[in-house]
């Protein structure tokens, strides 16, 4: 559990990352399952070094877990309830994993800092899933994508953090044009509509939707998509930043 | 400078409040001018007690400076650059105010915590200026409203914080219906248009604007405003939350 050892971090401040991907008409979130007994599932998280910008720390955590550097990343909310602490989480983990030597009494004091109240800064990222190779940490059993509509119960307030990220994504999607970050380089208009439908979890009327997107004036039309049936082939588009 | 003495605060974390008011077609921000030599001007700020929710701390700071409890208040951004610190600010203050006994060597160590790097959580509030009586602190010469288009140079990154608050206000105004919080209980459609024009710093076409606002379905039409000229009197409206 090297990542829980106190280093030169700002105390009582953490970062939680909601990393969104998109596949098969589903909006997905990257969740890590800890290798301890008890099915502990959490968002990718981390801390801020004294000499590091908060945004830089978020980018480091994102890169560490996805192996990609340049993608859409945005700070969206601070979770600052006074009763927000890792203590209950750690207590339960030790209760279910009594054999976990590293967490026994003599070593516990070095994790004391970790059980204090934490204020957490939420960031969400939008990634092209095809480019991401999720990276396990030493303490992870796995790190995988979950459909946001079928999320497991996450540790602490992480379900609430995901929900707030989705709310913010919906609230600012049109102004920030962020949906395109979930798609590959080129895509059809149907792909755009489906990604919007996955984000808002509701259908849109095709003609209105298409008009709205084209009116944004941010897409370049490319060649037709090769489908074998030339006359019905849809155009491909590319997002111009 | 009681407010700078270390208490049971979360270390290296602060709150800055951008308190918006509206008057004479101007969007205004509440700024405090410190009573020391050097024209130091800052946003109302404060810290978070260990046992206090971050939102609660922001509300306490807002109430402390405006004497009002219930008004629109929203967390909007975290300012987390690694080089964000009060040290340069405090050094300059001492340089220009060498007679300031309380900041001399022997007392300086108790303010040491205050000169470290701080991550600041930005909140903006929207208030009905007529209800606010700005409250001076011991260290303030004055606390007054400034037109956002004519802000002085503020200490640290406080100008940047105000700008980000304005950007966020503009980005989410229609979805959050927050503009009405700047107006008194009842207002004319012209008042609404003028508050929007102040926020976006640009004119809107009257007919389109009026239609857009009425389509939101959040206003109740009251009696006509008494102007003396009955046939031209505009209707008053009230915002229904």
UniProtKB/TrEMBL annotation, chains A, B:
Domain (NrtR DNA-binding winged helix) spans 179-238
Could you tell me one molecular function GO term of this UniProt entry? Answer: hydrolase activity
Top-rank taxon: Bacteria
- Which UniProt keywords are given for this protein, alphabetically ordered? Hydrolase
Nudix hydrolase domain: which residues? Answer: 14-157
InterPro entries from the UniProt entry: NUDIX_hydrolase-like_dom_sf, NUDIX_hydrolase_dom, WH-like_DNA-bd_sf, WH_DNA-bd_sf, WHD_NrtR
In its UniProt entry, what is this protein called?
NUDIX hydrolase
């Amino acid at each position: 559990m090297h990542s829980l050892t106190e280093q030169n971090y700002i105390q009582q401040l953490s970062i939680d990352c909601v990393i969104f991907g998109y596949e098969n008409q589903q909006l997905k979130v990257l969740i890590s399952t800890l290798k301890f007994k008890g099915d502990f599932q959490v968002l990718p998280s981390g801390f801020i070094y004294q000499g590091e910008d908060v945004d830089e720390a978020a980018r480091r955590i994102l890169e560490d877990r996805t192996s990609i550097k340049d993608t859409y990343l945005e700070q969206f909310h601070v979770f600052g309830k006074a009763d927000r602490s890792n203590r209950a989480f750690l207590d339960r983990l030790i209760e279910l994993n009594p054999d976990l030597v590293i967490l026994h009494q003599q070593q516990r004091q070095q994790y004391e800092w970790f059980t204090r109240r934490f204020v957490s800064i939420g960031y969400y990222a939008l990634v092209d899933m095809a480019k991401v190779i999720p990276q396990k940490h030493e303490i992870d059993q796995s790190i995988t994508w979950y459909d946001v509509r079928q999320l497991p119960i996450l540790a602490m307030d992480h379900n609430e953090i995901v929900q707030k990220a989705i709310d913010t994504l919906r609230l600012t999607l049109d102004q920030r044009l962020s949906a395109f970050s979930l798609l590959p380089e080129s895509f059809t208009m149907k792909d755009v509509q489906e990604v919007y439908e996955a984000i808002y979890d509701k259908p849109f009327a095709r003609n209105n939707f298409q008009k709205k997107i084209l009116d944004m004036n941010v897409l370049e039309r490319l060649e037709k998509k090769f489908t074998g049936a030339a006359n019905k082939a849809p155009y491909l588009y590319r997002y111009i930043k």
